[in-house]
Amino acid sequence: MRQANAMDCAPSPATAGAPTRHFAHIDGLRAIAVLAVIAFHLRETWLPGGFLGVDVFFVISGFVVSHSVANWNGGHLGHFLAFFYSRRMLRILPALLVCLLATMLLTTLFVPPVWLGTAVERTGAHAFFGISNFFLARNREQYFSATIDYNPFMHTWSLGVEEQFYLLFPLLFFVWTRGPRWRLAATAVTTAALVGSYLWATKLARHDPTAAFYLIAPRLWELAAGVLLFQCAAAVVRIPAWARSAIAWCGALLLAYTLVKATTSPVPAPHPLLSVIATVALIAGMHANTGTWLSRMLGTKPLTWIGRASYSLYLWHWPVFVLMRWTIGIDTPLQMLVGIGVTFALAALSTRFVERPLRYSTFLMRWPRPAIVACGLVVMLLSWSTGKAIHAAQARISLSTVAHHMDDWQSNLDSTLPKRPGCVLVAQNAQIGQVKPITIMTLSRQGCPAPQPAPPRIIVMGDSHATALWKMMSRYVLLTGATVEFHQNLGCTFASLQPEREGGLCPQGNATSI
After folding, report:
1. Which one, of 101, 111, 69, lies nearest residue 86 by Cα?
2. Are 320 and 346 in contact (CB under 8 A)?
3. With 224 labelled, which of 260, 397, 473, 511 sits at a CA distance of 20 to 30 A?
């Protein structure tokens, strides 16, 4: 997730570098969203629907980014693309790259290359280019699984969704800037994108829920809802003030309900849909109606400060929590308070010394827009290279005892044995099922004398803890010629007596394997 840019009404590229107008109630809504996400990531039972704060941010982003360029009149599409992408880069990249590099360094120092950490470096490497959501979807790293709690780059999936949306947005929205005659067509395109994306998300969630959760196509409808709200904002203003207040209050109550009652599910209904409707109602109800008690409450100074720092708060909170989980823990009240305190301190430093200086730099504003885009791409590539170099040095600089003594801590397959020269282990992997795939690894041997009598076929079923048997079973195969099948239901057991601790996909995976 990446928070939307501050709402601004710059009429032309000439004003792009000036601090922009903030709407306090939008900042307050951002604050509610980021606090909900933080609470959910700290302890899921505190706010079961806190993960829906990401959906709230998507709607806000669609609305705000539309508002920020709606009155642009600086020329043809090429100028518009350069103007839009240069602003996005100045808004997104500085804080993101600093956070990614710092997290890569700390991860290299403290997170050993064990099973729970195998996806960490690759997720971070993809995050530099805004495509970590594709990596997580392709590798079926489920958002609601226990393993994801140990990946400090997991939260960058939503940044990827927004960055990919920004690649599409100017191509779709440019028509709107051509004048009133084109606005009906632009609204029709947005509506079609919203409906098509929602229908696709509903269909995809049935057979590939991980992809439905992470990818841009099934998430586009949430961002499009914010764009469509902006395009219809003129009609909202004509609604009587009392009716707009009623709409806003209905939205607030509906959002509160979803945050408290939602269940973890990749399906875009009912709770994600309700949270999007609630956010649309809140923004629409307070649009040009900022004098109400609700808008004043959202516009209080503490909430607006949190809202303005929400991007950095989101960037830093998850790496802080995960790195504490890998080191000192984040279970006791004191540890949680430390995690929250460190998060807010880093967010304040990032906002003050990274985000704002570069975003409003008068020096950079004198550059041609294409030059800023090109420079941003170069810095992105250099940052990625630096991150790769840091991780490559893990064997030398890691502070983890595990990293320096891997054989004592992690069970690996033995491919050969001195007692059986020329006899090698063969490991073959296959997956069955789509909703919750089961990985089956079959161990056999080749280049060995035929065993007498015929050896047994052994099936080992279990979650990730079953991997502790790898070394023993691989040696057994090499010595006896037996065939061993590991049925790995990662993150789930095969006969759980506490299914509520494993998520809704575990029973489907169990049925597939059986």
Report:
1. 69
2. yes
3. 260
